[in-house]
Write a structure and sequence with these properties.
Helix 15 runs antiparallel to helix 16. The relative contact order is 0.10. The two termini are about 30 Å apart. This protein has a two-stranded antiparallel ribbon with strand order 1-2. It has one domain: Orthogonal Bundle (Farnesyl Diphosphate Synthase). It has about 325 residues and is mainly alpha-helical. The chain contains 16 helices and 2 strands.
Length: about 325
């Protein structure tokens, strides 16, 4: 079995090769931004999950490389288009594609990435390729649904926790789940095991996003790598904000809504005031408990996966690594 670090090294080397190839293609204004996006790096979590799931059933992880790159290219396509919609200037400490080039180039390069992802996937050698493509297509559509729900929530104040959890399931969790299941399908794993890996990925993905919500408010800024409180300043409907609105008495809710409605404010003052409300309502601990609930649900699924404990040990290590992250 490969370790997570070994799989990260394998996929990073393969993506570096692909970056060099893309930088040599014409037209440059189409392919160079794609290479630039992939070169921004990141943890390569999703492609590692593809390889890890494949490795549960076979040591020949090179046969899952095409599927892993497909997932990574698609994920980065969603980030590229998200940055355009959010008018974000920076991604991973670098200018976003639409800032470095322009919006039209970014849109077209993103479109090309979504198509290229299918090309990578179809190079996979597996008798399950039709099922892999079907799952990938379903996931791609669900990610778009999640993004639309997220945008819809920007102008709604009556968003429920249930609606929010469904949104992050679609926007974030389904791609993690897809990564694991596609890796298993590529290795021709039993259908029941592939399905369990999918559910494991869903629970882990929701815990992952809830942790993102928490880190944006409570992370150590020196470790987090950017200023905390961005979600508070943008009035983003996170688990923390929705839970605070749900638990507030009338006076506290009025105070919280006042900060949300204000157009003119000092950023540090707003962050401090909203965080104080969160602290009063014990929102941090409530969020931690919710993260733990989804994590434990994932672990119960891990226990159901009919493989030797030593075989699936790296899968558990991945889950623990995700839960222990601080940025």
């Amino acid at each position: 079995m490969y370790t997570i670090k070994e799989l990260q090294k394998i996929i990073s080397e393969e993506i570096d090769i692909e970056i060099k190839r893309l930088n040599g293609l014409e037209p440059k204004n189409l392919y160079e931004p794609i290479a630039y996006t992939l070169a921004m790096g990141g943890k390569r979590l999703r492609p590692v999950m593809v390889l890890l799931a494949y490795n549960l059933f076979s040591d020949k992880v090179e046969k899952a490389i095409h599927a892993a790159i497909a997932i990574e290219v698609f994920h980065n396509f969603t980030l590229l288009h998200d940055d355009i919609m959010d008018e974000a200037d920076v991604r991973r400490n670098s200018p976003t594609v639409h800032k470095k080039y322009n919006k039209n180039i970014a849109i077209l390069s993103g479109d090309a990435m979504s198509i290229m992802a299918y090309n990578y996937l179809q190079n996979s050698e597996s008798k399950n390729l039709p099922n892999m493509v079907q799952l990938f297509s379903q996931t791609a559509l669900e990610v778009c649904e999640g993004q639309q729900f997220d945008m819809d929530f920007e102008t709604k104040m009556n968003v429920s926790i249930h609606q929010y959890l469904n949104m992050i399931r679609l926007k974030t969790a389904v791609l993690l789940a897809c990564s694991l299941k596609i890796g298993a399908l590529a290795a021709n794993a039993p259908e029941t095991t592939a399905d369990l890996l999918y559910v494991f990925g869903l629970d882990l993905g929701i815990a992952f996003q809830l942790q993102d919500d928490l880190l944006d408010v409570y992370a150590d800024q020196n470790i987090f790598g950017k200023k905390t409180g961005g979600d508070i300043l943008s009035n983003k409907k996170t688990f923390l904000l929705l839970k605070a609105l749900e638990l507030s008495n009338q006076q506290t809710k009025i105070e919280l809504l006042d900060w949300i409605d204000r157009k003119d404010f000092d950023p540090d003052e707003k962050i401090a005031a909203v965080k104080q409300i969160y602290n009063k309502l014990n929102i941090k601990d409530i969020t931690i408990n919710s993260i733990e609930d989804f994590y434990q649900s994932a672990i119960s699924i891990w226990n159901e996966i009919d493989l030797p404990i030593e075989t699936k040990a790296e899968l558990l290590q991945l889950a623990q690594m995700i839960m222990e992250r601080d940025r």
